[in-house]
Structure formats: C-alpha cells, structure tokens
Specification:
This protein has about 70 residues and is mainly α. The protein is about 50% helix and about 10% strand. The protein has three helices and three strands, in the order βαβαβα. Strands 1-2-3 form a three-stranded parallel beta sheet. β2, α2 and β3 form a beta-alpha-beta unit. The protein is globular. The termini are far apart. The relative contact order is 0.21.
C-alpha cells in the first residue's frame, strides 16, 4: 500500500500516482491533511479516476463525505 504525501514528491504528483497505480499496489491511501475540504475532494476525484483505470483501491483518510462526493461525481 502507498500513502500519499505530495510534499515529498519532487515531480508531478498525479503522474507519480499513475506510475504507482500501474505497479498494482494493494491500495493507495490519500492522506493530505493540509488541504481544505474542497481541495481534498478535487484531488480525491482525480486520484480515484487514476485508481479506477488501474483497478487499485483508493483509501480516503480524511473525511467520509469526500468518499461520497468523489464517487458521485464520476
């Protein structure tokens, strides 16, 4: 399982998520605590789309409402 921390990522964060998801980890956990709820929701939707393409589960580690929003907006 990979746990995100975009501050440690020196290249494009979403591109790195694509690369990680392509390796088929058991899951990717979105853990970005410094984002507002709206920013977190937006990032969750983008990462959820990537995870779906690669059939990798996404674990939301912030707010249960984000899970609902990211699933509903697809």
């Amino acid at each position: 399982m990979f746990v995100t921390n975009r501050k440690l990522c020196k290249d494009d964060f979403l591109n790195r998520i694509h690369q990680l998801a392509n390796g088929k980890p058991h899951a990717i956990m979105l853990r970005e605590k410094d984002k507002s709820l709206e920013e977190y929701e937006e990032l969750a939707m983008k990462i959820n789309n990537i995870c779906e393409v690669h059939q990798v589960p996404l674990i939301i580690n912030q707010n249960i409402s984000v899970v609902y929003v990211s699933c509903q907006r697809q």
